[in-house]
Design brief:
Elements (H helix, E strand, L loop, with lengths): L10 H69 L2 H20 L8 H20 L2 E4 L11 E8 L8 E6 L1 E4 L2 E4 L1 E7 L3
Parallel strand pairs: 2-6
Antiparallel strand pairs: 1-4, 3-6, 4-5
Helix pairs in contact: 2-3
Length: 190
């Protein structure tokens, strides 16, 4: 077997080989730089996404805080009179008691009765302007959220759990219960 020898490379061929190797080395270093830049870009995009998510959460928290503060202010406006209104309720109760105890048959008390009724109506109209509503549940179904049962009476005239009489009327302030109505409730006869 004879070995074939390659002829010796010419200087031009050597230069081309060297240039090709240099190009390969140059391409390899460019690819490394591109690869590093791509990694940095991916890392930066990830950080940007995290920052965007954080910004959205902070914005949502701020919106929620603003909404809660607005609700708190609204509640403060609505219920600022709660203590004052509660303190006025005995006045209405006393006017109602006075009307219940006066002999309506006696002509001498006709002017007094009319005066007390007008005073009570004026008083209720005034507090109603500020959101205080009187609850008079006589004849209505018993509602434990608005009524306080003081007694139960068997009766065939009304369905069970119906308010038969009102001992003391209840009141609400802007939909919030100030005082439950004290009532008697019907039950089925034995």
């Amino acid at each position: 077997m004879t070995e074939q020898h390659k002829p010796a490379e010419t200087p031009e061929e050597l230069n081309q080989t060297t240039d090709s190797h240099a190009d390969t080395v140059e391409l390899s270093s460019e690819q490394t730089i591109i690869s590093k830049l791509e990694e940095e870009l991916a890392k930066t995009q990830s950080q940007l996404a995290e920052q965007h998510d954080l910004m959205l959460r902070i914005k949502a928290d701020a919106d929620n805080a603003r909404r809660r503060a607005a609700q708190d202010v609204e509640k403060a406006h609505k219920f600022a009179l709660e203590k004052f209104a509660s303190d006025l309720l005995p006045v209405v109760d006393n006017l109602e008691r006075a009307l219940n105890f006066i002999n309506r048959e006696d002509e001498a008390f006709k002017g007094v009765i009319e005066g007390i009724e007008l005073t009570m109506k004026s008083f209720l109209d005034t507090v109603e302007k500020y959101g205080v509503i009187q609850l008079d549940p006589a004849g209505q179904p018993f509602n434990p959220e608005q009524h306080q049962a003081m007694s139960m009476q068997p009766t065939a005239d009304l369905p069970p759990n119906t308010v038969t009489f009102v001992m003391q009327k209840g009141y609400e302030l802007n939909g919030r219960l100030l005082r439950p109505a004290m009532v008697g409730v019907s039950k089925a006869p034995d």
